[in-house]
Protein backbone atom coordinates (compact mmCIF):
# COMPACT_ATOMS: atom_id res chain seq x y z
CA UNK A 1 0.00 0.00 0.00
CA UNK A 2 2.85 2.35 0.80
CA UNK A 3 4.33 1.70 -2.63
CA UNK A 4 1.06 2.50 -4.39
CA UNK A 5 0.45 5.68 -2.36
CA UNK A 6 3.96 6.94 -3.01
CA UNK A 7 3.63 6.12 -6.67
CA UNK A 8 0.27 7.89 -6.94
CA UNK A 9 1.76 11.10 -5.53
CA UNK A 10 4.70 10.79 -7.93
CA UNK A 11 2.44 10.34 -10.97
CA UNK A 12 0.17 13.22 -9.96
CA UNK A 13 3.17 15.52 -9.60
CA UNK A 14 4.49 14.29 -12.94
CA UNK A 15 1.17 15.00 -14.62
CA UNK A 16 1.16 18.50 -13.09
CA UNK A 17 4.66 19.14 -14.46
CA UNK A 18 3.68 17.91 -17.93
CA UNK A 19 0.49 19.98 -17.93
CA UNK A 20 2.60 23.07 -17.24
CA UNK A 21 5.22 22.07 -19.82
CA UNK A 22 5.41 23.97 -23.11
CA UNK A 23 3.81 20.90 -24.68
CA UNK A 24 0.61 21.21 -22.63
CA UNK A 25 -2.22 20.32 -25.00
CA UNK A 26 -5.70 21.65 -25.41
CA UNK A 27 -8.16 19.15 -26.88
CA UNK A 28 -9.95 21.00 -29.66
CA UNK A 29 -12.28 18.33 -30.95
CA UNK A 30 -13.23 14.68 -30.62
CA UNK A 31 -15.14 13.22 -33.58
CA UNK A 32 -16.76 9.82 -33.01
CA UNK A 33 -16.23 7.38 -35.90
CA UNK A 34 -18.85 4.67 -35.68
CA UNK A 35 -18.50 2.52 -38.80
CA UNK A 36 -16.11 1.65 -41.66
CA UNK A 37 -18.01 4.04 -43.92
CA UNK A 38 -17.67 6.78 -41.28
CA UNK A 39 -13.95 6.11 -41.00
CA UNK A 40 -13.51 6.21 -44.77
CA UNK A 41 -15.31 9.56 -44.98
CA UNK A 42 -13.25 10.97 -42.10
CA UNK A 43 -9.95 10.01 -43.75
CA UNK A 44 -10.96 11.35 -47.16
CA UNK A 45 -11.81 14.68 -45.55
CA UNK A 46 -9.09 15.11 -42.92
CA UNK A 47 -6.10 12.79 -43.48
CA UNK A 48 -3.41 14.38 -45.67
CA UNK A 49 -2.34 10.96 -46.94
CA UNK A 50 -5.66 10.87 -48.80
CA UNK A 51 -6.51 14.54 -49.34
CA UNK A 52 -3.11 15.03 -51.02
CA UNK A 53 -3.79 12.23 -53.49
CA UNK A 54 -0.71 10.25 -52.43
CA UNK A 55 -3.05 7.44 -51.38
CA UNK A 56 -5.86 6.92 -53.86
CA UNK A 57 -8.17 4.80 -51.74
CA UNK A 58 -8.53 3.56 -48.18
CA UNK A 59 -7.65 0.02 -47.13
CA UNK A 60 -11.00 -1.77 -46.88
CA UNK A 61 -9.56 -4.57 -44.74
CA UNK A 62 -8.14 -2.04 -42.27
CA UNK A 63 -11.49 -0.25 -42.08
CA UNK A 64 -13.40 -3.46 -41.42
CA UNK A 65 -10.87 -4.94 -38.98
CA UNK A 66 -10.81 -1.77 -36.89
CA UNK A 67 -14.46 -2.23 -35.95
CA UNK A 68 -14.51 -5.98 -35.34
CA UNK A 69 -13.10 -5.41 -31.84
CA UNK A 70 -16.24 -3.59 -30.64
CA UNK A 71 -14.52 -0.49 -29.27
CA UNK A 72 -15.25 3.22 -29.67
CA UNK A 73 -13.04 5.13 -32.10
CA UNK A 74 -12.71 8.90 -32.37
CA UNK A 75 -10.57 11.22 -34.41
CA UNK A 76 -9.07 13.95 -32.25
CA UNK A 77 -7.49 17.34 -32.82
CA UNK A 78 -5.39 18.87 -30.07
CA UNK A 79 -3.21 21.97 -29.92
CA UNK A 80 0.51 21.88 -29.15
CA UNK A 81 2.91 24.80 -29.60
CA UNK A 82 0.17 26.66 -31.47
CA UNK A 83 -0.28 23.79 -33.97
CA UNK A 84 -3.35 21.64 -34.53
CA UNK A 85 -2.27 18.01 -34.24
CA UNK A 86 -4.44 15.10 -35.36
CA UNK A 87 -4.65 11.65 -33.84
CA UNK A 88 -7.00 8.89 -32.75
CA UNK A 89 -8.34 7.56 -29.48
CA UNK A 90 -9.79 4.08 -28.94
CA UNK A 91 -11.96 3.38 -25.89
CA UNK A 92 -13.56 0.21 -24.50
CA UNK A 93 -17.32 0.14 -24.96
CA UNK A 94 -18.25 -0.63 -21.36
CA UNK A 95 -18.38 2.33 -18.94
CA UNK A 96 -15.66 2.60 -16.31
CA UNK A 97 -12.18 3.88 -15.52
CA UNK A 98 -9.45 2.30 -17.63
CA UNK A 99 -5.66 2.40 -17.79
CA UNK A 100 -4.28 4.09 -20.90
CA UNK A 101 -1.67 3.34 -23.54
CA UNK A 102 0.15 6.01 -25.53
CA UNK A 103 1.15 4.59 -28.91
CA UNK A 104 3.96 6.19 -30.93
CA UNK A 105 3.85 5.36 -34.61
CA UNK A 106 6.71 4.81 -37.03
CA UNK A 107 7.53 6.36 -40.38
CA UNK A 108 7.87 10.02 -41.28
CA UNK A 109 5.34 12.59 -42.38
CA UNK A 110 2.55 10.68 -44.17
CA UNK A 111 4.69 7.62 -44.89
CA UNK A 112 4.11 5.15 -42.09
CA UNK A 113 1.30 7.23 -40.58
CA UNK A 114 -1.35 5.47 -38.54
CA UNK A 115 -3.53 5.06 -41.64
CA UNK A 116 -0.72 4.24 -44.09
CA UNK A 117 -1.28 0.79 -45.68
CA UNK A 118 1.37 -1.60 -44.43
CA UNK A 119 2.20 0.28 -41.21
CA UNK A 120 3.54 -2.05 -38.50
CA UNK A 121 0.73 -1.00 -36.16
CA UNK A 122 -2.45 0.59 -37.45
CA UNK A 123 -6.01 1.32 -36.30
CA UNK A 124 -7.03 -2.35 -36.29
CA UNK A 125 -4.19 -3.28 -33.95
CA UNK A 126 -4.81 -0.28 -31.67
CA UNK A 127 -8.50 -1.23 -31.50
CA UNK A 128 -7.45 -4.72 -30.43
CA UNK A 129 -5.36 -3.28 -27.59
CA UNK A 130 -8.34 -1.15 -26.51
CA UNK A 131 -10.48 -4.30 -26.43
CA UNK A 132 -8.20 -5.62 -23.67
CA UNK A 133 -9.47 -2.83 -21.40
CA UNK A 134 -7.29 0.18 -22.25
CA UNK A 135 -7.89 3.66 -23.62
CA UNK A 136 -5.39 3.89 -26.47
CA UNK A 137 -4.30 7.26 -27.82
CA UNK A 138 -2.03 7.84 -30.82
CA UNK A 139 -0.71 11.01 -32.43
CA UNK A 140 -0.08 11.48 -36.14
CA UNK A 141 2.67 13.98 -35.15
CA UNK A 142 3.04 17.39 -36.73
CA UNK A 143 3.53 17.30 -40.48
CA UNK A 144 1.63 14.04 -40.98
CA UNK A 145 -1.89 12.67 -41.12
CA UNK A 146 -3.43 16.10 -41.54
CA UNK A 147 -1.56 17.71 -38.62
CA UNK A 148 -0.15 21.21 -38.99
CA UNK A 149 3.57 21.96 -38.83
CA UNK A 150 6.68 20.18 -40.06
CA UNK A 151 7.98 16.77 -39.02
CA UNK A 152 11.56 17.04 -37.75
CA UNK A 153 11.82 13.34 -36.90
CA UNK A 154 12.46 13.54 -33.18
CA UNK A 155 12.80 17.29 -32.79
CA UNK A 156 10.00 19.55 -31.61
CA UNK A 157 7.51 16.88 -32.77
CA UNK A 158 8.29 15.03 -29.52
CA UNK A 159 6.08 17.68 -27.88
CA UNK A 160 3.14 16.06 -29.64
CA UNK A 161 3.79 12.96 -27.50
CA UNK A 162 4.56 14.85 -24.29
CA UNK A 163 1.18 16.54 -24.58
CA UNK A 164 -0.84 13.32 -24.64
CA UNK A 165 -1.12 12.80 -20.84
CA UNK A 166 -2.95 16.12 -20.56
CA UNK A 167 -5.25 15.07 -23.43
CA UNK A 168 -5.93 11.78 -21.66
CA UNK A 169 -6.72 13.65 -18.45
CA UNK A 170 -9.69 15.20 -20.24
CA UNK A 171 -11.37 11.84 -20.82
CA UNK A 172 -13.61 10.56 -18.03
CA UNK A 173 -12.76 6.96 -18.94
CA UNK A 174 -9.03 7.30 -18.18
CA UNK A 175 -7.22 6.49 -14.94
CA UNK A 176 -4.28 8.85 -15.36
CA UNK A 177 -2.28 7.03 -12.68
CA UNK A 178 -1.98 4.04 -14.99
CA UNK A 179 -0.37 4.88 -18.33
CA UNK A 180 1.77 2.66 -20.53
CA UNK A 181 3.96 3.59 -23.50
CA UNK A 182 4.17 1.59 -26.74
CA UNK A 183 6.29 2.53 -29.77
CA UNK A 184 7.34 0.88 -33.01
CA UNK A 185 10.28 1.75 -35.29
CA UNK A 186 10.59 5.58 -35.29
CA UNK A 187 8.04 5.32 -32.48
CA UNK A 188 10.62 3.60 -30.28
CA UNK A 189 12.89 6.63 -30.74
CA UNK A 190 9.97 8.95 -29.97
CA UNK A 191 9.24 6.94 -26.82
CA UNK A 192 12.83 7.18 -25.59
CA UNK A 193 12.96 10.92 -26.32
CA UNK A 194 9.66 11.53 -24.51
CA UNK A 195 10.91 9.58 -21.49
CA UNK A 196 14.14 11.59 -21.53
CA UNK A 197 12.09 14.81 -21.54
CA UNK A 198 10.02 13.80 -18.52
CA UNK A 199 7.12 11.62 -19.66
CA UNK A 200 6.09 9.42 -16.71
CA UNK A 201 4.63 6.00 -17.41
CA UNK A 202 4.32 2.68 -15.60
CA UNK A 203 5.90 0.52 -18.31
CA UNK A 204 7.26 0.64 -21.85
CA UNK A 205 7.08 -1.71 -24.85
CA UNK A 206 9.04 -1.05 -28.04
CA UNK A 207 9.60 -2.93 -31.30
CA UNK A 208 11.57 -2.46 -34.52
CA UNK A 209 14.18 -0.71 -32.41
CA UNK A 210 15.78 2.62 -33.33
CA UNK A 211 18.54 3.15 -30.78
CA UNK A 212 21.46 4.51 -32.83
CA UNK A 213 20.70 6.76 -35.78
CA UNK A 214 24.30 6.72 -36.97
CA UNK A 215 24.00 2.96 -37.51
CA UNK A 216 20.85 3.53 -39.56
CA UNK A 217 22.60 6.01 -41.85
CA UNK A 218 25.56 3.63 -42.14
CA UNK A 219 23.24 0.76 -43.08
CA UNK A 220 20.93 2.85 -45.30
CA UNK A 221 22.79 5.97 -46.55
CA UNK A 222 19.63 7.30 -48.24
CA UNK A 223 18.23 7.94 -44.77
CA UNK A 224 20.72 10.78 -44.38
CA UNK A 225 19.21 12.47 -47.42
CA UNK A 226 15.76 12.10 -45.88
CA UNK A 227 16.88 13.59 -42.57
CA UNK A 228 18.44 16.56 -44.39
CA UNK A 229 15.19 17.10 -46.28
CA UNK A 230 13.10 16.97 -43.10
CA UNK A 231 15.22 19.16 -40.84
CA UNK A 232 17.74 21.87 -41.82
CA UNK A 233 19.50 21.28 -38.48
CA UNK A 234 20.74 17.95 -39.81
CA UNK A 235 22.68 19.67 -42.59
CA UNK A 236 24.41 21.98 -40.12
CA UNK A 237 25.71 19.22 -37.84
CA UNK A 238 24.73 15.65 -38.84
CA UNK A 239 26.65 13.96 -36.01
CA UNK A 240 25.04 16.08 -33.30
CA UNK A 241 21.59 15.63 -34.87
CA UNK A 242 21.96 11.84 -34.95
CA UNK A 243 23.38 11.70 -31.40
CA UNK A 244 20.48 13.73 -29.98
CA UNK A 245 18.05 11.11 -31.35
CA UNK A 246 20.02 8.04 -30.28
CA UNK A 247 19.12 6.63 -26.87
CA UNK A 248 22.42 4.76 -26.57
CA UNK A 249 24.10 8.15 -26.05
CA UNK A 250 21.95 9.15 -23.06
CA UNK A 251 20.59 5.95 -21.57
CA UNK A 252 21.12 7.25 -18.01
CA UNK A 253 18.39 9.84 -18.61
CA UNK A 254 15.69 7.17 -18.92
CA UNK A 255 13.57 6.26 -15.89
CA UNK A 256 14.02 2.68 -14.68
CA UNK A 257 10.59 1.42 -15.64
CA UNK A 258 9.94 -2.12 -16.94
CA UNK A 259 10.79 -2.27 -20.64
CA UNK A 260 9.74 -4.90 -23.18
CA UNK A 261 12.02 -4.94 -26.25
CA UNK A 262 10.93 -6.85 -29.36
CA UNK A 263 12.80 -7.26 -32.64
CA UNK A 264 13.10 -9.48 -35.69
CA UNK A 265 16.46 -10.93 -36.72
CA UNK A 266 15.67 -10.21 -40.42
CA UNK A 267 14.77 -6.56 -39.84
CA UNK A 268 16.41 -4.83 -42.82
CA UNK A 269 15.08 -1.40 -41.88
CA UNK A 270 16.82 -0.97 -38.53
CA UNK A 271 18.80 -4.22 -38.16
CA UNK A 272 18.74 -6.38 -35.06
CA UNK A 273 22.17 -5.11 -33.92
CA UNK A 274 20.46 -1.97 -32.60
CA UNK A 275 18.16 -3.96 -30.35
CA UNK A 276 21.08 -6.07 -29.14
CA UNK A 277 23.16 -2.99 -28.28
CA UNK A 278 20.22 -1.42 -26.48
CA UNK A 279 19.43 -4.48 -24.39
CA UNK A 280 23.09 -4.99 -23.48
CA UNK A 281 23.30 -1.38 -22.30
CA UNK A 282 20.03 -1.63 -20.36
CA UNK A 283 21.18 -4.82 -18.69
CA UNK A 284 24.52 -3.29 -17.77
CA UNK A 285 22.67 -0.49 -15.97
CA UNK A 286 20.23 -2.93 -14.34
CA UNK A 287 17.07 -1.84 -16.04
CA UNK A 288 14.13 -4.26 -15.70
CA UNK A 289 14.04 -5.43 -19.32
CA UNK A 290 12.58 -8.38 -21.20
CA UNK A 291 14.06 -8.99 -24.66
CA UNK A 292 12.67 -11.25 -27.37
CA UNK A 293 14.37 -11.67 -30.74
CA UNK A 294 12.11 -13.38 -33.26
CA UNK A 295 14.13 -15.58 -35.57
CA UNK A 296 13.82 -14.62 -39.22
CA UNK A 297 11.18 -11.99 -38.53
CA UNK A 298 10.88 -8.71 -40.43
CA UNK A 299 10.62 -5.14 -39.17
CA UNK A 300 6.97 -5.56 -38.18
CA UNK A 301 7.58 -9.08 -36.78
CA UNK A 302 4.63 -10.02 -38.98
CA UNK A 303 5.54 -13.71 -38.89
CA UNK A 304 4.87 -13.83 -35.13
CA UNK A 305 2.17 -11.19 -34.76
CA UNK A 306 -0.09 -13.28 -32.50
CA UNK A 307 2.78 -14.04 -30.10
CA UNK A 308 3.92 -10.40 -30.12
CA UNK A 309 0.47 -9.24 -29.04
CA UNK A 310 0.30 -11.93 -26.37
CA UNK A 311 3.60 -10.66 -24.93
CA UNK A 312 2.43 -7.05 -25.18
CA UNK A 313 -0.85 -7.77 -23.42
CA UNK A 314 0.85 -9.67 -20.59
CA UNK A 315 3.33 -6.82 -20.14
CA UNK A 316 0.66 -4.11 -20.05
CA UNK A 317 -1.60 -6.10 -17.75
CA UNK A 318 1.19 -6.78 -15.28
CA UNK A 319 2.84 -3.38 -15.03
CA UNK A 320 0.16 -0.91 -16.18
CA UNK A 321 -3.23 -2.41 -15.35
CA UNK A 322 -2.21 -4.28 -12.18
CA UNK A 323 0.61 -1.89 -11.19
CA UNK A 324 2.96 -4.65 -10.09
CA UNK A 325 6.26 -3.21 -8.86
CA UNK A 326 9.25 -3.82 -11.14
CA UNK A 327 11.71 -6.50 -10.04
CA UNK A 328 14.97 -5.58 -8.34
CA UNK A 329 17.86 -6.45 -10.67
CA UNK A 330 20.81 -7.91 -8.79
CA UNK A 331 23.45 -10.04 -10.48
CA UNK A 332 26.18 -9.76 -7.85
CA UNK A 333 28.00 -13.08 -7.26
CA UNK A 334 26.89 -15.09 -4.24
CA UNK A 335 29.20 -17.22 -2.15
Automatic annotation (TrEMBL):
Residues 129-321 form the Peptidase S9 prolyl oligopeptidase catalytic domain. Residues 1-25 form the signal peptide. InterPro entries: AB_hydrolase_fold, FrsA_esterase, Peptidase_S9_cat. GO terms for molecular function: carboxylic ester hydrolase activity; serine-type peptidase activity. It comes from the Bacteria. Keywords: Hydrolase, Signal. GO terms for biological process: proteolysis. The keyword Hydrolase applies. The keyword Amino-acid biosynthesis does not apply. PANTHER family: DIENELACTONE HYDROLASE DOMAIN-CONTAINING PROTEIN-RELATED, POLYKETIDE TRANSFERASE AF380. This is Peptidase S9 prolyl oligopeptidase catalytic domain-containing protein. It comes from Alteromonas lipolytica.
Amino acid sequence: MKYKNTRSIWLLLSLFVLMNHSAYAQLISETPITSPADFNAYLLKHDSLFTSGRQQKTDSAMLENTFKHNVRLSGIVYEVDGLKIRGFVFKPNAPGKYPAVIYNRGGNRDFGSLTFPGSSIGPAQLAEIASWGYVVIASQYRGGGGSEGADHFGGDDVNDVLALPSVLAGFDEVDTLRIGLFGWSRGSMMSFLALKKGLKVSAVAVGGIVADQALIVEHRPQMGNMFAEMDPQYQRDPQAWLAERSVLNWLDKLPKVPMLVLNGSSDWRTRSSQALKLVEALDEKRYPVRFIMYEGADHAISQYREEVFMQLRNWLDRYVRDQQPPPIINYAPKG
